[in-house]
Amino acid sequence: MKLLVTGSTGFLGQAVVRDALRLGHTVRAAVRPATDVDRVWPDRDPRLDIVRIDLRRKQGLAEACRGVDAVIHLAAVKMGDFYDQMLGTVVATENLLAAMDEAGCKRMVLCSTFSVYDYMRPRSGRVVDESFPLEPDPDARDEYAKTKLLQENMVRAHAEKHGLSLTVVRPGVIYGPDNLLNGWTGQQLGATRWARVGANAQIPLTYVDHCANAHVLAATTDAAVGQTYNVVDGDPPKQKRYIKLLQRRLTPRPRVIPINWTLARTVARCGWLFNRMCLGGKAKVPSILVPCRLHARAKPYRYSNAKLRDELGWEMRYPLEQAVDRSLAIERGEAVADDAEYTARPGEAPAVAAPVTEAATA
Q1: What is the DSSP letter of 122?
Q2: Where does the chain show beta strands of DSSP type E?
Q3: CB atoms within 10 A of CB 239
């Protein structure tokens, strides 16, 4: 198949391009006009075609979509104010949909996010799968969550009205080279200190190569049309396990300041009420003091990848420890084999690509 990949030079986008080529597909990579493609792909595969477009403008979009079998839409804006993210995520997607209609391209895989879920109201211990409730109050969330909710709803409405074959892929926390730390591991306090809340909460990690493969399978498998898939690796680690794993490998060794989950959510609730009632909700506070963000990152939920495995045959290629070691090796500029045999460090047992238990998927 010939695939158009937007956001192709990003962290996930480059992995999607690699995986699609690995599986024998042809890729048209959409890049911004000023992108140095020789830096991104110094040894370009002859099956990789480059098209320079700006999704915020309609010029050239229909030509980019013409002749492709499916679009894997990854491009989104994660930083800046609401209007920046609205333009780069929602308006850009609206332009892309119009271009696909004009070009006659009728299949899209939309990269969504776990940020669209409602983490405040569902009880602790519940399984987060594709049926988990979506956020009913987007204004309580950050700009990224709001614009991704708007984007997903808009694309679903367009698909229903115009006959677009749509698959929505919702990745968990994507990790890999230069992206091992994230908001789910805690609030960073300087270069080597973290404030950690929710030691026993699972982190819905997905290694970037695994996440990329899920998008390619969704674009090339007929059974994926009309479906939504969560992407999370098997055996998601608890916060304390993942942080210990990183502490053994990072220099200088990060120091962790543990904060009790009950105390943290009480303080966050009080801070949120004070901000809303006394400051009009205008104060900028750390995410650890915003209840909906704190619950998303520290509430003890469980995560299922059963639908992705069962319907698309998706599977992990690397256990957690191996994926982390590969990531650090790539950061150091070392060559890594795709499927090298892995030996765990002393005291560590490699996680296996195990399915979630029946109890967890009930």
Answers
A1: S
A2: 2-6, 26-31, 48-52, 70-73, 107-111, 127-128, 165-171, 173-175, 187-188, 193-197, 205-207, 228-231, 255-259, 302-303
A3: 24
Rounded Cα gap, residues 303 and 87, in angstroms: 32
Structure tokens at 20: 């699609």
Peptide bond into 252 cis (omega under 30): yes
What pLDDT was estimated at residue 323?
96
**Is 300 exposed, middle or buried, given 0-12, 13-18 or 19+ CB atoms closer than 10 A?**
middle
Dump the DSSP string for 233-277.
-SSPPBHHHHHHHHHTT-SSPPEEEEE-HHHHHHHHHHHHHHHHH
What pLDDT is attached to residue 148? 95
What residue has token string 């009950």?
262
- Please give the backbone phi and psi of residue 139, each rounded to the nearest 5 degrees, phi first: -65, -20
The span from the CA of 225 to the CA of 219, in Å, is 8
- The answer to whether 170 and 231 are in contact (CB under 8 A) is yes
| CATH architecture assigned to 2-177+205-233+302-361 | 3-Layer(aba) Sandwich (3.40)
Could you give phi then psi for residue 25, rounded to 5 degrees? -85, 165
Q: In this predicted model, what pLDDT tens digit does every residue of 329-357 receive, in sequence order?
A: 999 999 887 765 555 555 565 444 333 33
CA distance 31 to 44: 14
Please name which of 213, 52, 76, 223 lies closest in space to residue 155, comparing C-alpha atoms.
76
Which among 200, 208, 218, 192 is positioned nearest to 72, based on CA atoms?
218
The answer, yes or no, to whether residue 299 has pLDDT greater than 50, is: yes
Q: Which amino acid is at 108?
A: M
State in Å, rounded, how far the first CA of the chain is from the last one: 36
Q: Which range, of 40-49, 154-163, 179-188, averages the lowest pLDDT?
A: 179-188
